[in-house]
Amino acid sequence: MGSVPSDTLSLSEDTGIAIPEPTQTLHQILIHSARQHPEKTALVSCHQPRSLLPSQGFAKNTESRDYLRWSYAHLEKASGLLASYFIQSGVGKGDAVVVITYSCAEWALCFWAAARLGCPFVPINPAIVARANEIQHVLSALGRIGALVVNDDSIVKLLSGHAPAEIRKSSTNLILGGVGMIGWTAFEDTLSTPGLSGPPMAKQSMDDTVLIVLTSGTTALPKGCPHTNKTVASMCARHKIMYSLDETRVSCNHMPLFHLAGVMESLWAWAHGGTVVYPNHSFDARATLDAIDREKCTDMCLVPSMLRAMIDHPALSSGNTKSLGLIKLAANDVLGSDARACSEILQARLVTNCFGMTETSGMTEIFAWKDGICKDFEPFPVGRMAAGAKARICTPGSRTLVERGVIGELHQGGMTVTDRYIGGGEDDSSFYTDPAGSWHISGDRAVMSQTGEISVLGRYKDIINRAGENISPSVMERVLNAIQGVNSSQVVGVPDEVAGEVPVAVIKLNKDSMTPKNVFYDRILKELGVIFSLDKVLYLKELGAEDWPTTATGKVRKVDVRRMVIKHLRHESQSSTRMAARESTEAALTRIWARFSGVPEQQISSTMSLEGMVDSVTIMRFRSQVKKELGKTFSLEELNQNPTIAKQAVILDRQQENLSRGNEASSQPVREGPPQLSDIVHSRGKQDVFDEIRRDTENQLQTIGLSWDEDVEEVLPMYDYVVAWRVITGSISFRIVFKCFNTTTEQLRSAMETVLPRHGMLRTILVYSASAGFSWAMIRSSKHWFDLSIVDGGNLKNPEDLLSIDMRSPELNNSKPLPLFYIKLYFVEATQSAGFVVYGDYSTFDAHSVLSLFVEDLRDVLENQTATLAPRPQYSLFANAYYNYRTSIPAQLMVDYHTSRFAGLSNRPPAFWPKETFQSVNAPPERSADQLLLEGNIAPGLTGLTKHIPIDMRNNVYLKMHKIPHSVAIKAAIAIYNTQQTGHPYAFFSNLQMCRSYPFLPSEITSRLPDIMDMPGATLEGSFEEIHLPPSEPLCTFLPRLHAQQNELTAHAQYPSLRMLELVDPADREFMTQASRRQAINYNPVVKQDEDAKVQNMQFAGSANLSIIWWCGMVDAETVQIRVTWCDEVFGMGDAERAVEGFERNLKWIVEGGNWERGVGECGI
Fold it and tell me: Among residues 385, 393, 376, 387, which one has the least CA distance to residue 355?
């Protein structure tokens, strides 16, 4: 292996043995072989007649085969004549020779001719011609086209319709296998054109582009990877060193010739005087087995699906594959059983696993089987660095090396790496050059072992985030592909309202295979565990397809598979709901449990305990699906106490009457006229208080043309937390931006007018009365109200313009008496679709209420105009319960807990950070500071600073052992940063939590109430938190102590804070108030958005009247997201950047090991 300095051996960087700087061009390499071995067979095409192109005076095919065999002399002469024809037709050096064919001898002639002329050779997958946007993009991006060669007239017809301008700019257009058409010449006529002779070789440099192979990932338009004489010659030199290639080798090349592997399998043989065999026009297991037997092939490249098709084929038993000396497995999902099958079944003496990309060629190799010794890895690494290759594994989005054993993003370097794309737009950012050479950032998740083996774990963009757990589809696909009868599989993530995303497997079976679905569920659970449990298994045929949708280079388009799955599941969900109406409760529950557990229905009995079969996320998803299909629900406590289907069915059946009453209570109000004395709980039955509330509400309404009698639906008491911490009344504090797809502003407005009647808290204004305090007045849905709360903002050019809309409108600076939830609609010209911006007061909603419930309803209406939306629970159930029971014994116990925590707080050192609060800045008296910032363009503190930090907390032994959740490690990092800023061993925060439970009520009552998770409105609570960090306390005792403290706070999160503030000593109250105003922590999981959804959130900006807020969450199990927002009058961008950097440094110190016995005061030293 190459040399790596000893002091960097712990880092994920490695280099293969050096190869000499190449000096021969591609054409010189080919000509050298032709001159050295003129009579040796260069090409065998088993599916083409031996008489192909017979009239050119070549030596006759004397071998007793009925298919094509050409010598090197034949291939050189014929390609020279074709090059001469190209010149006569106007093709010049640098013009692209585009070949849209399958594997055939004509492809080889074009390859050799293009090399002779110094023309870039561009092989293209015939399948993409049917996709107009792709073929147009490719041909347009190539620039000058000298020759266009196609397989047959069907391709001509498609090209004529999809890319007529590109056809016209080609100097010559050729068609294989038949007579010419208008504008097209039959290929076989070209070599008999009068006056042809072998043209002189074009003068070329090593930096000239000679090969352009398309790549497109799995989502974007195809883009070309331009390879030069230097990169191609380096690939040849590498292969010779790795496999000792010479003229005795016979390569069975069934790889697609529009893929770099197919091109290079031909070239590697020709470069060393070997023979290339094309078994068929495309891969066919029988044709490959026959070719190996008849031609005594020695070398072959395989991907696992090809291997499985070959070893399952009946022709294998009658054939002979003993000639195989080398099989190169080329994939990142190779199994030990694959390598063993190559050796034991196909009888290859040497089996390797290689990995590379179109941008880089094969960069790694591992000898999987040599001389009967198997390198028994599961899954197989892709190997160590090949000759002349380099690799790094870096923190995603950076060039910072990670340590060996740590997952990161794979960077590949060396002389075979191209340096740009053709037609790639901005994608060139994945290439860079540094003193070590040229590099390509692959986008692959990878890990390097201590001995240098690299394992590729799948694409970053394909990762499935199931409730914060990072699930790699490629890991699951390896397991599924190893099951007998499977040709190939794809695992995709589909949206789920509880887990964010869940994995669905799509299986393509071998012909005649009947593998049942329960085998796939069972194998995944057995080998990978419950976190990886499949939500669904589908056969590819169930999606109406015989084969995978592919890109221009034959890669499976996962994004298209995902769309197919989502469409299928939506249809299936509608069928399930109809089925549920006809089933017994037990049958429906059995069917739903079978779906989520992966256990076949016939194996689930009504008395079987489901405990231990599923995790908490699956239980939540089950509960959500039951509600969706049956219109009934469980509490989590009921599920835990009743783990069998029989008991669960009894609960639901008994619930029917109560549920009906609950639905009546939760549906939209039917009261005639405005609220009366008995309807407004905080009037306390006093007529004078009621009259005061009514009078203050009417005063607000009159200014906007509304009245008490006609327009007021409810008047609800504002609960303690939003009153206690409301420094300035009426402040519009949040601004949320959404973009839509395939939606007009008229459709969007209509959808909102359908949805808003279900979301009463989004139809409110703020009212203050001296006797009753703050109230929300909920306004009835009406045209007048919708005109006030939904306004047309006009047109914008691009969706990004939504992020920077000027908010100078004076009415937005004061929400009284305007709506507390105010919407502006925009038409975006670039997408020909709508977008909208919400301005909301934080007292009326929480993140779940808007980003989940409101957006979910809006999507349902936009995607199905005739959708009937089930009623949502009224917020009055929560608000009135809070007010009525805030003096109960359970509430008093909560107050006692918090007041005891604050006793003597003022004796602590004033370790406040940041030093200032926004209340201390000079702002106009009629406005809050955050309103001042919202006026005009958004200040940076409102949108905030976000960073993704790669850090693997899932595999941390200490966190696992002590069951320390990610949120506690994150809070610890923030607390330590506070002490580093103040020099005191204390950190003070507001701890923000969404409390989705009915306050101060026993479970016997709450279990009868509608599910509060479906209730629109605010449930946010904030608890003051003091964290003591003695510098000498070891991390190993600090984290469990902090975890226990967090559990206590969570158990007491819902409490009447106004009552607590009355009882706390004034000095302690002032201390707590000053500390709480400075910073807060809000921990929430980061959920991926469905990229196919019609409504997508783009931005959440705002201020909650605090100097800084830490918004924390896990993108997946290996990535923390930290976002800080701040008051620009107190904090600056530089301060925020330092805070995020300090947080990251502290978190890594906590998580990445070696510090468990060290004092927390040593962090950062």
Answer: 385
Q: Last residue of some domain: 617, 641, 666?
A: 666
The top-scoring range by mean pLDDT among 165-169, 526-530, 600-604, 961-965 is: 165-169
The DSSP element (H or E) to which 748 belongs, if any, is helix 745-755
Between CA 191 and CA 55 the distance in angstroms is 9
Pairing relationship of beta strands 172-175 and 145-150 according to DSSP bridges: parallel
Helix (H, G, I), strand (E, B) or coil at 593: helix
The closest alpha carbon to 295, from 37, 33, 41, 38, belongs to 41
Start-end of H helices in 965-1065: 966-982, 1003-1006, 1035-1051, 1057-1063
The Cβ-side half-sphere exposure at 826, using a 13 Å CA radius, reads 24
CB 632 within 8 A of CB 650: no
Spatial distance between the Cα atoms of 86 and 92, rounded to a whole number of angstroms = 8
Query: For residue 264, which of 386, 165, 423 has the smallest C-alpha distance?
Result: 386
| The total number of structural domains that make up the chain | 4
Q: Are residues 741 and 863 in the same domain?
A: yes
- Phi/psi zone of residue 611: left (φ > 0), alpha (ψ -120 to 50 degrees), beta? beta
| Domain assignment present for 10 | no
The C-alpha atoms of residue 486 and residue 824 are separated, in whole angstroms, by 52
**Contact indicator for 617, 499 with CB cutoff of 8 Å:** yes
The one-character DSSP state at 270 is H
In a domain, 216, yes or no: no
941: three-class secondary structure by DSSP: helix
- State which residues form the domain around 591: 583-666
Query: pLDDT (tens digit, 9 = 90+) per residue, 510-546?
Result: 888 888 888 998 888 888 877 788 888 999 999 988 8
- Do 243 and 289 meet the contact criterion of CB atoms below 8 Å apart? no
**pLDDT for the residue 924:** 37
Contact 534, 524 (CB under 8 A): yes
Residues 430, 724: Cα–Cα separation, whole Å? 51
Regarding whether 648 and 734 lie in a shared domain, the answer is no
**882, burial (CB in 10 Å: exposed 0-12, middle 13-18, buried 19+):** buried
Q: What is the CATH number of the domain that holds 1036?
A: 3.30.559.30
* Whole-angstrom distance, CA of residue 1135 vs CA of residue 1137: 6
Tokens representing residue 388 in the block: 């002349």
Of residues 224, 214, 230, the one with CA closest to residue 26 = 230
3-state helix, strand, coil in the chain (%, to 5): 40, 25, 35
Predicted confidence at residue 583, as pLDDT, reads 72
**pTM above the 0.85 mark?**
no
User: How many other CB atoms are there within 10 angstroms of residue 1141's CB atom?
Assistant: 12
Does residue 51 carry a pLDDT above 90?
no
Best-predicted range by mean pLDDT among 175-184, 193-202, 390-399?
A: 390-399
Q: Can you tell me the distance from the alpha carbon of 458 to that of 1116, in angstroms, rounded to the nearest whole number?
A: 15
Listed residues 572, 601, 623: the one ending a domain: 572
Q: How far apart are CA 66 and CA 45, in angstroms?
A: 10
CATH assignment of the domain containing 690: 3.30.559.10
Residues 855 and 888 in one domain: no
| pLDDT tens sequence across 464-477 | 877 556 677 888 88
Q: Give residue 254's pLDDT band: very low, low, confident or very high (50, 70, 90).
A: very high
Which residues, in sequence order, are bridge partners of residue 790? Answer: 823
> Does the pLDDT value for residue 29 go beyond 90?
yes
Q: What is the mean pLDDT of residues 3-9?
A: 46
**What integer pLDDT is reported at residue 593 of this predicted model?**
78
Let me know: does 428 contact 416? Beta carbons within 8 Å. Answer: no
Q: Does the structure show a pLDDT above 50 at 728?
A: no
DSSP H stretches of helix in 631-725: 636-641, 645-666, 687-702, 708-711, 720-724
Average of per-residue pLDDT values in the chain: 82
